[in-house]
Design brief:
- This protein is mostly helical and about 100 residues long.
- Helices cover about 75% and strands about 0% of the residues.
- The chain has one domain: Helix Hairpins, CATH 1.10.287.3510.
- It is elongated, with a radius of gyration of 17 Å.
- It is an enzyme of class 7 (translocase).
- One of its GO terms (molecular function) is NADH dehydrogenase (ubiquinone) activity.
- Pfam families: Oxidored_q2 (PF00420).
- One of its GO terms (cellular component) is mitochondrial inner membrane.
Length: about 100
C-alpha cells in the first residue's frame, strides 16, 4: 500500500517537472516535444497504478497509449516539416504570419 502511494507521488512529481520544462523558455521544438512526451508518460504511470488500485480493467491504458503514440507521431511529423522548410527547429527562425 505504501508503494502504491509512492508511485502516485512519483508520477505527480514527474508531471510537474515535465510542466516546468514545457513552460520554460526553450529554443528548440524537439525539447518541447520531449517534455510533452515525458508528461504523457507520467500520466500513463499514474493511470496505470490508479486503475490497478481500483480493480478496473486496464483497457483504458491501451487506448491511452494508442493516442499517445499518435500524438508523438504528429509532433515528429511537424518537426520534420519544419526542418525541411526552415532548415532548423528554432522557434525564432519562422514567423506565424508566413504561409
Amino acid at each position: 500500500m505504501a508503494n502504491l502511494f509512492l508511485m502516485f507521488y512519483l508520477s505527480m512529481i514527474m508531471f510537474l517537472f515535465g510542466c516546468m520544462v514545457f513552460v520554460s523558455n526553450r529554443k528548440h521544438l524537439l525539447s518541447v516535444l520531449l517534455s510533452l512526451e515525458f508528461m504523457v508518460l507520467s500520466l500513463f504511470i499514474f493511470f496505470f497504478f490508479y486503475l490497478n488500485f481500483m480493480k478496473f480493467e486496464s483497457y483504458f491504458s491501451m487506448f491511452f497509449l494508442t493516442f499517445c503514440v499518435c500524438e508523438g507521431v504528429l509532433g515528429l511529423s511537424i518537426l520534420v516539416s519544419m526542418i525541411r522548410t526552415h532548415g532548423n527547429d528554432y522557434f525564432q527562425s519562422f514567423s506565424v504570419l508566413q504561409c
